[in-house]
Amino acid sequence: MKPARWWAVTGAVALGVSMAAMTGPPAAASPHPGPASHRIELRGTLAPARDRSRSAGTVASASQVSFDLMFSLRNAAAAQAFVQQVSSPGSAQFHHYLTDAQWVSRFGPTGAGMAKAEAWLRQEGFRVGSVAKDHLYVTATGTALRVEHAFGVKLGYYEVNGHRVRLADGTMTIPASLGGVVSGTVGVNQYVATPGL
Known about the structure:
5 helices
């Protein structure tokens, strides 16, 4: 893995590692049809209440939403430790990068797990793109209505820092059968960069 590309991957890995640890217990309640006990929450997918305080309209059911479905890492703690070591001056592993193949071999999700997640996306009516080379995520596109059904939320527009953004009204959920396979989403909720950060 080339150093110039590594820093972009490091950010994605940090997100993947943090999201991998967030899949929680079954949701107490979910607007998704079916028993709530068959759904689990994707922690970290609930936008802050302050961002959802100023409604700015509804999202049209037919509008297109593109997002990344994040995969859980195998041995997320070891992956996080590796990222710290390879990025820390003085560490014996400093700048000892892995190739994409080495990364996938050590920390990537299983092929069976990724196939299961992709099959679920297709079952929910999404167009599924390619899996990233580092196996951190797969891209998907579908209507807002399909997103709402798949993740058990309603989408709305909100005014945040002077911008109109799309946010889910609650914590997203997925079928319990995808626990340990899917760690989160990127792109369903839209965010605005905070000046000075």
